[in-house]
Amino acid sequence: MRIEVTRSGGFAGLSRHAVLDTAARPDADHLHALARSALAAPPTVPTPTRDGYTYTVTVDGRTIEAADPTLTPAQRELVAEVLGEGA
Predict the structure, then answer these.
(1) What is the mean pLDDT, run by run of 10 residues, along the chain of 87 residues?
(2) Contact, 69 vs 52, CB < 8 A?
């Protein structure tokens, strides 16, 4: 599974992009479950808060958009894992 995350916005308005391929990861099952849960969340219109981040998450060609503070727990954990930092 290929998971791609782009984070934009924030105080400085900088973008960050990362891609994670789960093929050889020992935690692949956990990441797959997180990705399924993140994509299954009801769609929302991303309305970022002042200096908040907007996220674009693509999993095997399927894309969702979300923004702080409306990320679901699964979306937040998945974004943090892919970007390698807190979301």
Answers:
(1) 93 89 95 94 72 90 89 94 80
(2) yes
| pLDDT value of position 51 | 81
Task: State the pTM of this model.
Answer: 0.86
Helix, strand and coil content of the chain, in percent to the nearest 5, comes to 30, 30, 40
Handedness of CA 23, 28, 1, 53 (dihedral sign): negative
Would you call 24 exposed, middle or buried from its count of C-beta atoms within 10 A (0-12, 13-18, 19+)? exposed
Q: What pLDDT, on a 0 to 100 scale, did the predictor assign at position 14?
A: 84
Which strand (E) or helix (H) includes residue 7?
strand 2-9
Q: Whole-angstrom Cα distance, residue 23 to residue 76?
A: 21
Report the candidate in 40, 39, 48 with the shortest Cα–Cα distance to residue 70: 48
